[in-house]
């Protein structure tokens, strides 16, 4: 199997995409920060489904602009060789792995994307500036790759929601596709951060997904029943320090006071397990029979 073409400059990337564009192929982008795992591989498969024989581009860039003070940018895992192997296995055509100078020539940008009010809730409350950094680099990647389709994991649901909003509000013309969260056999959502959990914390971490599944299983009885079921799971476990547990509409807005049966909703959770902050979320339907699981 031949591996993907590796581009580290804008010019190399443009040259690699030129033929595909000339032939009228659609281009898919999977933006990542590397340390690739099965969750990322599933995004690459969704990208391939979307563009068929068109090129799938995976970007690997640890974006300094989305790290706050005390969030250890230097310790973020950088595993390019292993990442290239994952991309090769998934038949990715191009890996774009630029340096910081290549993405931010002349230093960090003076003009950045304002992510708006949705960025001030949930993750944005504890990570000020994070989504400004995410949207700015994603906008740059959209500009450099000019994809027709970009695939993001539902695992980072607030990020996915904001990128969708940016593409629509700024008329970027990119079809932003959400790919389902991949889970371990016991429900834990796949995440690069799981590697920081010791065995005891790894066990405690399953509380997050158990709480979400419990909520989903009770959602037919209404919002309160769903939240109570999730809280009961959290109370029954140790070593999980809850940050938030919220039920929202699918766009992360408030649910109406009276929720009509059949309303689509999203439940989101964040908690610290040991020193590792984990997030997870799930779709559910209020007041309607749920597809049961776990
Ligand atoms: O989800 C990530 O890995 C990053 O936030 C992204 C979208 C690649 C932007 O740096």
Shape: globular
What is the tally of beta strands? 9
Give the uncertain stretches in residue-range form.
none
Distance between the termini: 38 Å
Structural class: alpha/beta
Secondary-structure element series = EHEHEHEHHHEHEHHEEE
The biggest beta sheet reads: 6 strands, parallel
What integer is the average pLDDT? 96
Number of helices: 9
Q: How much strand content do the residues show?
A: 15-25%
How helical, in percent, are the residues?
A: 25-40%
Bound molecules: pantoate
Side by side, the strands of the main sheet go: 1-4-3-2-5-6
Radius of gyration: 20 Å
List keywords for this structure.
294 residues, alpha/beta, 6-stranded parallel sheet, 9 helices, binds pantoate, Pantoate_ligase_C, pantothenate biosynthesis, Rossmann-like_a/b/a_fold
What does this structure look like?
The protein has 294 residues and is an alpha/beta fold. It contains nine helices and nine strands. It has helices at residues 10-22, 38-51, 80-89, 100-103, 123-126, 130-145, 157-169, 199-218, 223-235; strands at 5-7, 28-32, 56-60, 94-96, 149-153, 175-179, 240-248, 263-273, 276-286. It has a six-stranded parallel beta sheet with strand order 1-4-3-2-5-6, with helices on both faces. It is globular. Pantoate (PAF) binds at residues 31-33, 63, 66, 134, 137-138, 156, 159.
